[in-house]
Hints:
It comes from Actinomadura keratinilytica. InterPro entries: AAA_dom, DNA_Partitioning_ATPase, P-loop_NTPase. Residues 120-304 form the AAA domain. This is ParA family protein. By secondary structure, the chain is α/β, with parallel strands linked by helices. It has 2 domains: 4-107; 113-376, P-loop containing nucleotide triphosphate hydrolases (Rossmann fold). Helices cover 43% and strands 15% of the residues. The protein has helices at 4-8, 19-31, 36-49, 73-85, 89-103, 129-142, 157-161, 174-178, 212-216, 225-230, 250-258, 280-300, 320-332, 345-353, 357-360, 365-376; strands at residues 11-17, 63-69, 116-120, 147-151, 191-192, 200-203, 239-243, 271-277, 306-314, 337-342.
Amino acid sequence: MAGNNEREEREKVVSKLPSWLRQDLKVRAAELRMDIQDAVEAGIRAWLTAKTPPAEVDTSGAESFSTWLPPGLYDDDFKPACASRGVSYVQGLAQAVSLWLDSNPSPRAAVRQVPRRKVVGNQKGGVGKTAVSAGIAAAYAESGENVLVVDYDPQGHLTNQLGVSPIIAGEDSLARHMSGEPLGHIRDLVVRLDGFGGRLHVLPACADGFLLDVKLSQVRAREAALERALAPLEDDYDVIIIDCPPSLGLAMDAGLYYGRRRDGERPRSSGVLIPVQAEDSSADAFGMLMEQIADLQDDLQIQIDHLGIVVNLYDARRGFIATSSLSNWEKLGDPPVVAVIPDLKEQREAVRKHQPLLAYAPKSEQAAVMRELAKEIA
């Protein structure tokens, strides 16, 4: 980092950058062990000498950004160049930072790694599987990772919540790929969401998923059907999140198998995350899911790591039922409670607006919990 003496030889520059681009800059500079000011300086110098105009950058929602640059670089060189190119200072700076990022790829890109697979499941509906799946997916994307969140539930709540059109029954779908009846490449089904630097992608739901258990009963090695379907996409992502249906059927077996620990994989980098609520019916459903996981491990001789329990929509004002249920979840110990998400209005508003929570209310308490949860189970 720059010391005081170095900064005395520079001048402070205050401009704006979109939050996703600022986060990319911060992460990449840290990966390359560079000071952010040096990265910005290099980007501006490359932008000034670029022979072809860089592509326009989406700067909507840009927020204040400050750094330290050599005297004259910003006012004497950069600003006149922006004027001659007909772009705003904010757009020019965004282009310069993007140019630096493109010229300085992440060192992680050179290493082939298996994507971490987070399977979000519970046999009981309405406990918040979709909210948790969308929340941690956005948190990982916000931190600089490429993320695919799969709407594995034919009801399509995740698809609808994120403002994506569901796949029409009869067209190509995840269920078709799992049952050996694809109509195209599965990559063609993936939708990129706006924001988050283009790193958050969704595989939408299709109503034909309601028949998936029947179709899987006729497929060989059906437990691996989801893994076979998603294998062509794995090189594209750092994290893949599966928003499971409220089911204990064959489709859920395939989802749990997908989250198993693969050979050489770090413990708990993949596994099952279980949202519950602080009430008795969640405990009943939890017990059934744990039995299914145990049976699958015994039958197939695999290891499915428990990433933890998420107590969702918690409100202590509901009295003894809520507080005692939370206490009972915490006493389990294994799997541990890794997050308690409060019952606040922002999540419901985000659903109504068809936006990810971290885009609609990035500074809300629920958004903060999602970020901490993503770190906890990283």
